[in-house]
Amino acid sequence: MAMTSGSPEPSPRHGPARSRLRERVRADVLAWGAAERRDLPWRRTRDPWWVLVSEVMLAQTQVARVEPRWLAFVERWPTPASLALDDLSELLRFWQGLGYPRRAANLHRVAQLVVSEHAGVVPDDLIALLALPGIGPYTARAVLAFAYETDVAVVDTNIARVLARVGGERLTTRAAQSLADSWVPVGRGWAWNQSMMDLGSLLCRPAPRCDGCPLAGCCGWALGAHPDPDPAIGSAGVSVRQARFAGSDRDHRGRMLRCLADGPVAAEVLILEAGLADDPARGDRLVVSLLDDGLVAIDGGLVRLGQ
Question: Considering the entire predicted model, what is its pTM?
Answer without folding.
Answer: 0.83
